[in-house]
Amino acid sequence: MLRFKDFLLENKTNSDPELKKDFDYINKLIFDNQVKEVPLGYFNSKTKAGVMEVKNGKMSIKITKFFELSKQQRLSILAHEMIHVLMYQNNIKDNNSHGRTFMKIVDDLNKKQDEFIISKTEMLSDFKPTTKNKKEIGVIVFKLGKDDEHQAVFVNKEIINDRNLLNDFCDQLKEYIKHPLNVFKKDSIIKLEFWKCDDPYLSKFKIKRVLHLRNLELDVISANDLKTIQTGKKIFERKIK
């Protein structure tokens, strides 16, 4: 779970000036000034673009600084969270956090202006992490059998630079897939690719400090993710049968 206590603002006077200006602009443009002011600020989440949090009955909005956001993207995220605030302030019920009522409000507000689009869900894949998050990491890409689907595990640079450790991992995997209950099921061949990358986009994934079969936690990666990984340096590859 995310911990927001380090980012909570004590009162309205602490609201970030830039976000306060955006809040007032959006409130007038599409909300008819119906959203009551709440504390505003930033947090460094790579899993959420924005959040409306309620603590002890008090609301606050936070926007991530992990990603490089255009003006339109920031306004979209802020407006999205302001809908949550409006619904909470007016005790508007819904079947879930992004239910039918929420979606209808999004559609109605998007019709009121064309300067930005309020997203119904947070598409973090559309955002690029800031350059300050650029650091070398390792990626082990798994291609299972004949499927086009790729999975990967992201590890710190100490692991990807340790060739002996990586070779040991391959040997363990070779023994493991012989077991009838292995998680790779019927795949007879696993192709592994080992990469070094420093693209900030990849830092959105969880970086593991330990490489072990018992807690491998593979991430399914998209074609775009794979292309980003392949801009790095391939160390070696291995086929496990």
Rounded to the nearest angstrom, the distance between the terminal CA atoms is 38 Å
Label the overall shape: elongated
Overall radius of gyration: 22 Å
The residue-averaged pLDDT reads: 84
Helical percent range?
25-40%
According to DSSP, the number of beta strands is: 11
User: Helical segment tally?
Assistant: 6
The CATH topology of the largest domain is given as Zincin-like
How much of the sequence lies in strands comes to: 15-25%
Write the CATH architecture name of the largest domain: 2-Layer Sandwich
Low-confidence stretches: 1-14
Determine and state the CATH class of the largest domain.
Alpha Beta
Number of domains: 2
Succession of helices and strands:
HEEEEHHEEEHHEEEHE
Structural class: alpha+beta
Q: What profile does the largest beta sheet have?
A: 6 strands, mixed
Considering the chains and any ligands shown, give keywords for the structure.
241 residues, alpha+beta, Zincin-like, 2 domains, six-stranded mixed sheet, 6 helices, 11 strands, elongated, disordered N terminus
Describe the fold and architecture:
A hairpin with a 2-residue loop joins β2 and β3 (58-64). The protein is built from 6 helices and 11 strands. Mean pLDDT is 84; it is low at 1-14. α1 (17-29) crosses α2. It has 2 domains: 12-129, Zincin-like; 134-240, no CATH class. Strands 6, 7, 8, 9, 10 and 11 form a 6-stranded mixed sheet that branches. It has helices at residues 17-29, 71-89, 100-110, 157-160, 163-176, 223-229, and strands spanning 40-43, 50-55, 58-64, 67-68, 128-129, 137-144, 150-156, 190-197, 207-208, 219-221, 233-240.
